[in-house]
Amino acid sequence: MRTYERLFIDGDWVLPEEPSRLDVVSPHSTEIVGTAPNAGKADVARAVGAARRAFDDGEWPQLAPAERAAHLKALAAAYEARVAEMGTLITEEMGSPLSFSHAVQAYAPVLLINSFVDIANEFPWEQGRSGMLGETVVRREPVGVVAAIVPWNTPQLTALTKLVPALLSGCTVVLKPAPQTPLDGLLLGEIIDGIGLPKGVVNIVTGGREAGEELVTHPGVDKVAFTGSTDAGRRIAALCGANLKRVTLELGGKSAAIILDDADLSATVEGLRMASFMNSGQTCIAQTRILASRNNYAAVVEAIADLAASLRVGDPMDAQTEVGPLVSQQQQRRVQEYIDLGQDEGARIAAGGSAMPCGLERGWYVRPTVFANADNGMRIAQEEIFGPVLTVIPFSDSEDAVRIANASRYGLAGSVWTGDVEQGMDIARRIRVGSFGINQYALDFVAPGGGFKDSGIGREGGREGFEAFVEPKSILAKEQAQ
């Protein structure tokens, strides 16, 4: 049981204005494993005020980029020392399998911090340009106070994807974790508290939707960086648009994995083990639409169904578990409703279904499920389910596969699996998504991620990740005549 009584504001741990609490419930045991403050409007205002003072009157925006980078290197070292604690805590909070939590939820953020520091050292903070009127200096200056609002599925990775480039750019930040996973956010506060950042540069408030809306609409916030559902993203975009507030949105996905006839099916299936089922299917980039040619459709369905049936489902604290529980009972019910819907739409369950996995008597589990005989127009093929559910859709040829992959309101990620990398590259160029893999799906920290269409606005990661937190300023100088 981990209990936090205070919020991290202005370099100090402060009691919230109201006694309201967030209970964190284990999705495996269904028991309370921790509590955190449920911040109200006054707490958000206090955090924004601290960030505003630190930006307007503090030293942080005025430091040289190399000085800010030194602080972030210290953060990486301090974070690495607590990777095991962080990974275990995230598993307790939201049920991510422990092996995934340690490798991706907790250790990948260390790599991300160091990668951003390396990029910052090469970033053109000031750049000279010769033009008709002489020499112009183009400066990239911090956008100001950033509100970073992050989801529960990969809480640390999404938080640091925003926090680190914002800080390296000279911004100050108010971070709001999801109400399902407040504990790891406050543990991050402990780590930050230990590296000696100036007061108010990072503030962490835990709370629900009311706190998030207060943060988005607060006049002291210059920029909102959000990861979450498309519906929530639309609301945030509307609120930011009313005040011309800068915003980046990383939203939902319904990514297609195209399996061509020349693909090594065994290697493809092994690659989809992670690409489709990582984090128990609770990732926006999961490859959940499996596109198989009609020539090889039956073999692909059988192979994907065998994969789903082979996955070890159970206690997320067991290092051998590959699929854990879903984050909440509400999410479990939602996924089960989609499984029922798929059958009503005429798709056939080739593996899994809604029954509780054998041997599990409690917890919010859903068996890894594969639908066959599916059409891309079905709701199970068009709507983000956010669970371990795949839909196998037939295509006639590569042109048809591209058409089906693009026939989605989302455009976040995708992949193609083929023995011909050049053919894969040709297909990659025609799919309207923010990131794409050939014979894999992964996104390197040096590269930008984000989405087309309903998958969001803007990019995070890589050099482009800094552009979201800076404003360009052009300075043209002229000598005065003597």
Mind explaining what this structure looks like?
One of its GO terms (molecular function) is aldehyde dehydrogenase (NAD+) activity. Keywords: Oxidoreductase. InterPro entries: Ald_DH/histidinol_DH, Ald_DH_C, Ald_DH_CS_CYS, Ald_DH_CS_GLU, Ald_DH_N, Aldehyde_DH_dom. The protein is of the alpha/beta class and 482 residues long. It has two domains: 2-251 and 455-474, Aldehyde Dehydrogenase, Chain A, domain 1 (3-Layer(aba) Sandwich); 255-444, Aldehyde Dehydrogenase, Chain A, domain 2 (3-Layer(aba) Sandwich), CATH 3.40.309. Helix content is 39%, strand content 24%. It has 15 helices and 25 strands. It has helices at 41-56, 65-80, 83-94, 98-122, 155-169, 182-193, 209-217, 230-242, 265-277, 297-310, 329-344, 379-382, 398-406, 421-430, 464-467, and strands at residues 2-3, 7-9, 12-14, 21-25, 32-37, 126-131, 134-142, 145-149, 172-176, 202-204, 223-227, 246-250, 255-259, 287-293, 348-353, 367-372, 389-395, 410-411, 413-417, 435-438, 449-450, 452-453, 456-457, 459-460, 470-476. The strands form seven sheets. It has a seven-stranded mixed β-sheet with strand order 15-16-17-14-13-19-20, with helices on both faces. A six-stranded mixed β-sheet has the order 10-9-8-11-12-23, with helices on both faces. Strand 9, helix 6 and strand 10 form a beta-alpha-beta unit. Helix 3 (83-94) packs antiparallel against helix 6 and helix 9 (265-277) packs across helix 10. It is globular, with a radius of gyration of 23 Å. The N and C termini lie far apart (74 Å). The model has no long low-confidence stretch (mean pLDDT 97).
